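Task 17 of the worksheet. Students: predict the tertiary structure of the chain below and write it out as structure tokens. Keep your answer in the requested format; marks are given for formatting as well as content.
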Amino acid sequence: MIKNTIKEYRELDQAELRQKIDKMQQEFRTAKETVRLGKEKNHASLKFLKREIARAETVLTAQENK
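Model answer:
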């Protein structure tokens, strides 16, 4: 999990950004399942992924509204 900046998200076009969001959402679902099953105890990773998804979705919404 690498933190991306808003600037990096803005440099992507809408299709690339949607792909990145889908990938992060899949990663979030996988991480949530591993935490739920007790395989991983790091709950902070879920919070991190949720925030990254929100950042990317915010940039995507701004691009669509231009």
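Marker's comment: The longest helix spans residues 14-36. The mean pLDDT is 92.
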